[in-house]
Amino acid sequence: MAISTKQELELIRESVKALCTKFPEAYWRETDEKNAYPEEFIQALTKEGWLSVLIPEEYGGAGLGMVEACAILEEINRSGGNSGAGHAQMYTMGAVLRHGSEEQKRRYLPKVASGELRLQAFGITEPTAGSDTTSIETTAELKGDRYIVNGQKIWTSRAEYSDLMLLLARTTPKDQVNKKTDGLSLFLLDMKDQQHNITIRPIDTMINHATTEVFFENVEIPVENLIGVEGKGFRYVLSGMNAERILIASESVGDGYYFVDKSVQYANERVVFNRPIGQNQGVQFPIAQSYMEIEAARLMRDKAAELFDAGENCAAEANMAKYLASEAAWKAANAAMSTYGGYGFATEYNIERKFREARLFIVAPITNNLVVSYVGQHVLGLPRSF
Amino acid sequence: MNIFVLMKRTFDTEEKISISGGKINEDGAEFIINPYDEYAIEEAIQVRDAQGGEVTVITVGSEEAEKQLRTALAMGADKAVLINTEDDLEYSDQFTTAKILAEYLKDKDADLIIGGNVAIDGGSGQVGPRVAELLNIPYVTTITNLEINGSTVTVVRDVEGDSEVIETSLPLLVTAQQGLNEPRYPSLPGIMKAKKKPLDELELDDLDLEEDDVEAKTKTIEIYLPAQKQAGKVLEGELADQVKELVSLLHNEAKVV
User: Where does the Acyl-CoA dehydrogenase/oxidase C-terminal domain lie (chain A) (predicted)?
Assistant: First the structure.
């Protein structure tokens, strides 16, 4: 993996910023209004190589690390945009990269890097299992040279805009395994090939996130698309979580800076009672406080990303970064809403859209309560609570 | 085609300029590629892509300009050259810069040299034409279109809003006006490739130049900010009276008529 100099990292940030100026807030407001997928933005990101930052050079990517990937997503969200529409194309391939066979990597990664194939749907969560992943009920049964999948996933984002899905399914029933984390397997599902056996139902949500329910009826997956060893899929999923947490933290950091940038600008410009409202400490303090929290969260995010890139264990830092950044962004979102007053609610000011979007990361991709519980149990050694 | 781009590192246009101790305060300021030079870089890349050849971006300045050179490489230029005058020169002007650039370029067999028509800081627009004069090649300033057919070049030049079409030949120096193209920003593969591209650093010595050879022809006596704009005056009353008052003010107060 290549490591960027400070100057190169700055160039990355500036280039992403320049790309984002072509997709101003009016663009995001419109896609949000129409609940449309920001296809042009994703294509521009793909074409200019930003989504393949983590794919090694030998498979057609940039071969950079988490530090650079974080900078990219942070700048997108800071510009007023929403990385959520494409962030998974960056990291979902991590499971193939870390646990896939050489043949799988050669077959898929170059096409994921070029954008020819989109791998940005991750089917794990189910209506009855939620965060209790080992209780999922979707099954994959080996018949000859293929697995037959039946079941249902929920909150599968971007399924309509993805060619491939990383799918977790039970290959051995829970009552027949020693540990409940065994018997789950990870697959690379070609959704286009199996489209007649898959039903995707979009879920209308308060943000434009293209999330769906996905139903599988006798979906066929060839054996060669099993990732790693059958029954060990849960472990593979866990190993990808850290990357996801650090990247989500970066989007929150970007959101946080967005709210602070906007609040500072508005508080300096808006004059009421013959003075800028920012002169009032009731307006000024929440902005300054959330800025401090974002800066602190960014430090934890940086630490997590650097550990990740060094190949060291970063589970605690990745989780803490996700928690701190999403909470800080949410605080900043509220400060911005208060600063803008009534105008914050007017869609043309964009604050309410970003406010809705920033709220997501308190509960997704994992709820902050589970992060706190992770820290209590695994970092501090407190008793297991569930 | 052997293409050279003359590039300058300048203040970000969005920066507020402040002066301390008779000098422009550079602390904490953001620096960028002179925006007109971005058009030059873009044009050079487009010409190379269409005609083949190589693009070399040159700058005269300090080590800090390396960042802007790397950006040009990430945009797609092939090579970069920094002529570092930090240790040799305390004061320089357009003559200095042009002399150094011409000295570097004189044996490079340049087919096309492109610069910005003006740098947004000093704003003299002199360096390009001076370099062409020193190299004894034709030049066209403030161009908005460039077409190359063999050794025939057709250039559209912006003349205060009108267009002038000029036919000339290579080798040639042109300076870019806004509207020539839309400069690209670096892509991630572009940034990765730039890491491996050569960025050479030269000093006056390497060009066989003495400090005296490039000594500035001008002196800066004083630097000051423009006077703050006074609040305007809004005339009131009947339109006819307003016109009379305006004429009288222009005669007697502003003394411009």
Answer: 231-361
Q: Give me A51's structure tokens.
A: 């989504």
List the structure tokens of A194. Answer: 């199996």
A277 touches chain B (CB under 8 A): no
In B, minimum Cα distance to A44 occurs at B187
Query: What 3-state class would DSSP assign to B1?
Result: coil
The CATH classification of domain A6-114, taken from the options 3.30.470.10, 3.30.300.20, 3.90.870.10, 1.10.540.10: 1.10.540.10
Is A239:A311 a contact under the CB 8 Å cutoff?
no
User: C-alpha angle with apex A174: A172 to A180, nearest 5 degrees?
Assistant: 110
Residue B170: CB atoms within 10 A of its CB come to 16
Taking the model in full, what pTM does it have?
A: 0.89
Which positions in chain B have a beta carbon within 8 angstroms of at least one beta carbon in chain A?
66-67, 70-71, 74, 185-192, 195
The C-alpha atoms of residue A79 and residue A18 are separated, in whole angstroms, by 10
Rg from Cα positions in chain B: 22
How far B31 CA sits from the closest chain A CA (Å)? Answer: 12
Q: How many domains does chain B contain in total?
A: 2
Per-residue pLDDT tens over the stretch A113-171: 999 999 999 999 999 988 889 999 999 999 999 999 999 999 999 999 999 999 999 99
Q: Which amino acid is at A178?
A: N
A59-74 pLDDT per residue, tens:
999 999 999 999 999 9
